[in-house]
Amino acid sequence: MISTAKQTLKESITEAYCNNKAFPECLRIADLGCSSGPNTLIVVSDILDIVESICTQSLNKKNLPQAFQVFLNDLPGNDFNTIFQSLSSFYERLKKEKGDKFEHCFIAASPGSFYGRLFPNNSMHIVHSSSSLHWLSQVPKELVNKQTREAYNKGNICVSNTSPPMVFKIYLEQFQKDFTNFLRCRSEEIVNGGVMVFTIIGSTKSDSPQSILEILGRALNDMAMQNIIEEESLNNFNMPLYCPSEREVRNVIEEEGSFFLHKLNVFVTTWDAGFTTHQNNNNNYNNNLIERGKYVSDYMRAAMESILVKQFGETIIDELFKRLANKVIESMTKENWQYKNLLATLRFVIHQFVHYQSSALFRNENQLGVGLRPYLTEWSAAPETRKETSHKSKLSTTLHLLRNNYCLADHYRSSQSAKLCRRLRWLMLQGIGACERWWYAIVLYMRVFIPG
C-alpha cells in the first residue's frame, strides 16, 4: 500500500514546490500512524528521494533544504524503542547512498492521538498517513442501550452484513466526528501550501462489510459456542474501526472546509497482497493456501492482539489465531478477497489559487467592500427577484476579486466565524458553477465581514 501511494506522494510534493517555489530551510515531515516494523522508515526514505529528485531534475535548479525534521507519530503504546534502535542503520544507509546531502536529517517520535493536536501552529510541510485513519478514537458508546445495557451489534465485532441499520449509522457518525477533528487539527499545524497524503481502507458503500474482520468474528463466535469465551463478553465487544466509502470521505473533507481535495483515487488490493508480492517468483503461490492463511492470521494478530487480549484475556489468543488461519483458508475459495483503499491528496491553501493581479487595489477589507458592493447589491434580494441576465458576469467578476484578496487569510485564523471562512474558501476552490451556492456564500461573507 505504501508503494502504491509513492507516485501520488511524488506528484503532490512536486506540484507544491513546482516553478520557482523554494523548499524551506528546514523541511518538516510527519508520518501519522507509523506503527513499528520493517516498513516504518520506508515513507521517510521515499520522501527524501522525492525531494532530491525535484531538486536535481527541476529546470530551475533548487537547493535541498538545509535540514529535515521527521516526526513519527503513533499512540503511546507503540514500540518506539524498536524504531529508535533501527535509526543508526538507517542513517548509515542514507549516508552511503546519498553522501552528505541528508546529514542534517533528524528523526523523532511524537506519541499521541492524531485526533488531537500534535505539533505547533504552521509547522508541518508534508503530512503522510497510511492505513491508520479507519481506526476510530473510541468504540461508539451508542452501541449499547443506556437503559437495558443491551448490545445492538450482538455476534458481530464490527460493521457487518448482519448488523442492524442503526449500527451503520452509529459507526458513520463516530467516523465523521473523528475525521473532522483530524482535519481541523492538521489545518492548524500545516503551513500554507502544505501537502497531506493519506490512504485509508475503504468500502464500496457505507454498509459494505469488511470481510477479514467478519472472518475473525466467525472464529470468536465458534469459541463462544464452545464456551471457550463468554457469549456476553463477545456481544459487548466491538472494534473501534470503520472503513468509509469514497463519498463519506469526500463529504467530511468538503464540510470541514480546511483543505482543498486535490485527488481521491481508489485502488483495489487483496487481503493477502503482501504474501503474493513476496512470493511472486513462485508459480504455485496461488495453491499455497496454508501459508497464505497463516500470513493473513499473523499480520491480523500484530494489529489486533492488544485489543483482543484486553477483552478476552491472553489464554485464548493462540487458539483464536490458529482458528482464524483455518477460516481464512476456507474462505479464500468461496469469498471475494479484494478490498478497496482510498488514496487522498489534500492541499492546505489560505491564499488564492489563481494569481490574477489586476485587482491589487482590493488588498484590505474596506476596499474589498467598496469594490464588491455594487456587484452584491442585487444578490441581497431573494433569488427569484434577481436579474439572471447579468448574474453570471457579475459572479465571475466577484470571484476574481475574492480569489485575489489576502484578507481571507487573516479572517481564517482570527475570526470567530472561522468555519464560514473555511466553507467560503472551499466553495471558491471548486470553480465557477453552482451559482446559488456561490451567491449564498458571498452574501454571507459580505454581511459578516464587510461593514456598512
From TrEMBL:
InterPro entries membership: MeTrfase_7, MeTrfase_capping, SAM-dependent_MTases_sf
Transmembrane segment boundaries: none
A GO molecular-function term, please? methyltransferase activity
| Pfam families given in the database record | Methyltransf_7
Q: Which UniProt keywords apply?
A: Magnesium, Metal-binding, Methyltransferase, Transferase
Which GO BP annotation is one of this protein's? methylation
Signal peptide location = none
The record's listing under Gene3D superfamilies reads: Methyltransferase, alpha-helical capping domain, Vaccinia Virus protein VP39
PANTHER family xrefs: S-ADENOSYL-L-METHIONINE:CARBOXYL METHYLTRANSFERASE FAMILY PROTEIN (PTHR31009)
Q: What is this protein called?
A: Uncharacterized protein
Q: Which organism is it from?
A: Cannabis sativa
Higher taxonomy: Eukaryota, Viridiplantae, Streptophyta, Embryophyta, Tracheophyta
